[in-house]
Amino acid sequence: MIKRTRNEPMWLHTTFRIGGPAEYYAEPECTEEIGQLIEEARGRGIPYVVIGRGSNLLVGDGGYRGMVICLGRAFSRVTVMGNTLEAQAGAMLGAAAGCALERGLKGMEFASGIPGSVGGALVMNAGAYGSEIKDILSEAELLFPDGEIAWVPLEALDYAYRHSNIEALGRIVLRARFSLQPGERADILGLMKSYGEKRREKQPLEYPSAGSTFKRPAGHFAGQLIEEAGCKGLRVGDAQISEKHAGFLINTGQATARDVRMLVEEVQRRVFLHAGVELKPEIQFIGEFL
Ligand SMILES: Cc1cc2nc3c(=O)[nH]c(=O)nc-3n(C[C@H](O)[C@H](O)[C@H](O)COP(=O)(O)OP(=O)(O)OC[C@H]3O[C@@H](n4cnc5c(N)ncnc54)[C@H](O)[C@@H]3O)c2cc1C
Questions:
Q1: What percent of the chain has pLDDT over 90?
Q2: Whether pLDDT at 290 is above 90
């Protein structure tokens, strides 16, 4: 049965711990229920958005006037057949990578520390340490706006750095198949551990954030440009450019979406003045910004 609430605080559903209420919020338990919710939103004439773990989202302080559909635990099955790992959209990347490790399959180590869902990772083409989702994805099962469900091959998803065409075409990720290779469990575990250590050492994981604030501009590193423009530690309210890693914008307490947006704009302004480079947000903005 669909779990539903009205005026659901979205800060509860984002790793930033920021965001006003979603007018309608629903956690479906099966694909038919996703279709049902979309029909309902259309019937009411309101927009809808599908989210995973909210680890790349900034929801406005005014909330989302429409329906937020969250694919969570009910969509978290992961199975393995031969060298193919199949995961539902709501499965955590870490859980999928853990399953690959258990079965002695390599290729997914890079994703083990990314705190998002498989669905969000496919949309964002999440990546780390030189690998991206597109390098291991073979096909994705998508729900189309007309209700059709089909497996779509990697080549049709227009993958590029932190880009796919999945969302722009109004489609919802239901499942993904990843093509992995047999490997030694000890090596796979070793790589996952070393990536995990790097994250703990370099990233401000003790504060709520949405990961890297900006996409990496061609030929540069966003964090380095931000630091060189003198923005490390810069604050607006409780939003701050991390002292530990300038690529991260953190919520040091009660930051609002407005604080974050103003800080994002200020950093863009300063980096452009200093280096002539236009930083583009990697974080997805949804809802009403006051
Ligand atoms: C501490 C930290 C570290 C991070 N490190 C990395 C990193 O190393 N590399 C990296 O790439 N990212 C990183 N991120 C960002 C984030 O974890 C990834 O982008 C992740 O893939 C987002 O998944 P999600 O489930 O949280 O998506 P959400 O934030 O919920 O959604 C992201 C986008 O995908 C859409 N979406 C989500 N699920 C679906 C679906 N099933 N169907 C259609 N659309 C959907 C949403 O509408 C939204 O536009 C990090 C974030 C944090 C907080």
A1: 98
A2: no
Nearest Cα residue to atom 10 of ligand 1: 126
Catalytic one among 8, 86, 141, 282? 282
Catalytic hit among 117, 209, 212, 242: 212
Ligand 1, atom 48: closest residue by C-alpha: 51
> For residue 232, what are the contacts with CB-CB under 8 A and spacing of at least 6?
226, 241, 242, 243, 246
**pTM of this prediction?**
0.97
**What residues have CB less than 8 Å from 110, skipping those under 6 apart?**
127, 128, 129, 130, 131, 132, 195
Measure Cα distances from 203 to 112, 142, 199 in Å.
15, 33, 5
Average of per-residue pLDDT values in the chain = 97
